[in-house]
Amino acid sequence: MLFQTIPLIDYNLYNLSAFFLIFSFLGWIVDVIGQSAHDEYYSDRGFLSLPVCPIYGFGAVFLIFLLQPFLNDIPVLFFSVINYLYFMGAFCRTYS
Q: Rounded distance, CA 43 to CA 36, Å?
């Protein structure tokens, strides 16, 4: 029952958990590289001493839910993701 496909999207809880962990880890890698290049020393940006940044995982899962109807329309999908990243970056710069 836990791993049944969610009717709204074509993924089950196992897939969404995997997406969350993968994108949290990849986001951590990009964040550490970017911040370390900016600060010119190693800067661990992990969460609770783990190599993950959950905001990237939540963002990926959120975009999977939100953009499911547009999977066949590549330009809409591309510009939606770019706008999401731009506005989230602006929000984080404003309120951090």
A: 5
Residue 47 lies in a domain: yes
Residue 36 lies in a domain: yes
Per-residue pLDDT 10s for the chain (96 aa) are 556 666 666 778 888 899 899 988 988 888 888 888 888 888 777 667 788 888 888 888 888 888 888 878 888 888 888 888 888 878 877 876
- Residue 70 tokens read as 């547009």
The half-sphere exposure of 41 on its side-chain side, counting CA atoms within 13 A, is 0
Give the chain's domain count: 1
Please indicate, yes or no, if residue 24 is contained in any of the structural domains: yes
> Burial level of 35, CB count in 10 A (0-12/13-18/19+)?
middle
Structure tokens at 41: 């020393």
Backbone angles phi, psi at 47, to 5 degrees: -110, 120
Counting Cα atoms < 13 Å in the Cβ hemisphere of 72 gives 1
